[in-house]
Design goal:
By secondary structure, the chain is an alpha+beta fold. The chain is 30% helix and 27% strand. The chain has five helices and eight strands. It has helices at residues 28-35, 38-44, 54-67, 115-131, 145-153; strands at 13-14, 18-21, 71-78, 86-93, 99-106, 135-141, 157-162, 172-178. The chain has an eight-stranded mixed β-sheet, sandwiched between helices. Helix 1 (28-35) crosses helix 3. It is globular and about 35 Å long. The model has no long low-confidence stretch (mean pLDDT 96). The chain binds coenzyme A (COA). The site of coenzyme A has 22 residues, from helix 2, strand 5, helix 4 and helix 5. Coenzyme A binds next to helix 2, strand 5, helix 4 and helix 5.
Length: 182
C-alpha cells in the first residue's frame, strides 16, 4: 500500500510507565476480562464476547491484519510488570494518502494513571517516524470524556462533530493529528 514501511515484526516500544509489545497467547485472559467490562465495551463500541473461546480469533484477527499490512496492535505492559493491561493499535485505511485510525482499551484498574496517554504518544510517533503515515484519526463518543482528554493531551485536534446516524445513534467526535504537528 503506497509508500508505507511496515516493520517485519511488531516492534517493542518502551516508555516510562508502560511498554508496548506484540500480542501473545497469554494476553487472551486479560483481554477477555477487559472485553467483558460492559462500560468499557460500550465506550469503545466493541461487542462483548460470549466466551473466552473468542480469544483465539481476536488474536488471529490482529495477526492477520499485521500480515496484510492493514493494522498494527500492541499489548500494553506497565513498567515493572509482565501482564498485559490493555491494547493499542492502528488500523490503516487505504485512501490516498493513507491514514490510520487509533484504537485503545485499558483495563479499568489502570484508568487515569497516564498509561494510555504515554502509549498513544509512542504509537503515533512511531507511525509518523517509522511507518511513514502522515495522519492518525480517532472517533470517540461525545460522552467519552477520558478518551477525549487522552486525544487532546496527545495533540489530536477536533475536526468534526458527527451527528447521530442509523448505525451510530449517538453524537461522535472526529479527531486528527497530522505529522506536521510533531
Ligand atoms: C480512554 C482510555 C483508553 C484512557 O486510558 P488511560 O490510561 O486512562 O489514559 P490516561 O490516564 O493517559 O488519560 C486519561 C485522562 O482522562 C482524564 N479523565 C478520566 N476520566 C475523566 C472524566 N470522566 N472526565 C474528564 N476527564 C477524565 C484523566 O484524568 C486523564 O487526564 P490527565 O492525564 O490530564 O489527568 C481508558 O479510559 C479506557 O480504556 N476506556 C474504555 C475504552 C475506551 O473508551 N477506549 C477508547 C475508545 S475511543
Amino acid at each position: 500500500m503506497s509508500n508505507l514501511k511496515f516493520p517485519a515484526s511488531i516492534p517493542t516500544l518502551v516508555g516510562k510507565t508502560v511498554s508496548l509489545r506484540e500480542l501473545r497467547e497469554e494476553d487472551i485472559a486479560p483481554w477477555f476480562e477487559r472485553a467483558t467490562d460492559a462500560e468499557s465495551a460500550d465506550l469503545a463500541g466493541d461487542p462483548i464476547p460470549k466466551s473466552i473461546d473468542a480469544g483465539q480469533s481476536w488474536l488471529q484477527k490482529h495477526r492477520d491484519a499485521f500480515t496484510n499490512k492493514s493494522g498494527l496492535r500492541w499489548s500494553m505492559v506497565p513498567t515493572g510488570s509482565s501482564t498485559s493491561v490493555g491494547t493499542i493499535g492502528l488500523t490503516v485505511r487505504p485512501s490516498e494518502p493513507p491514514y490510520a485510525e487509533l484504537g485503545i482499551v485499558v483495563a479499568r484498574q489502570w484508568w487515569s494513571k497516564g498509561l494510555g496517554g504515554e502509549a498513544a504518544e509512542m504509537v503515533v510517533s512511531y507511525a509518523f517516524r517509522e511507518v511513514g503515515l502522515r495522519e492518525i484519526r480517532a472517533e470517540v463518543l461525545q460522552r467519552n470524556l477520558a478518551s477525549i482528554r487522552l486525544l487532546e493531551k496527545t495533540g489530536f485536534q477536533l475536526t468534526q462533530i458527527l451527528p447521530p446516524t442509523q448505525d451510530e445513534p449517538e453524537v461522535m467526535l472526529a479527531y486528527s493529528r497530522s505529522a506536521r504537528s510533531t
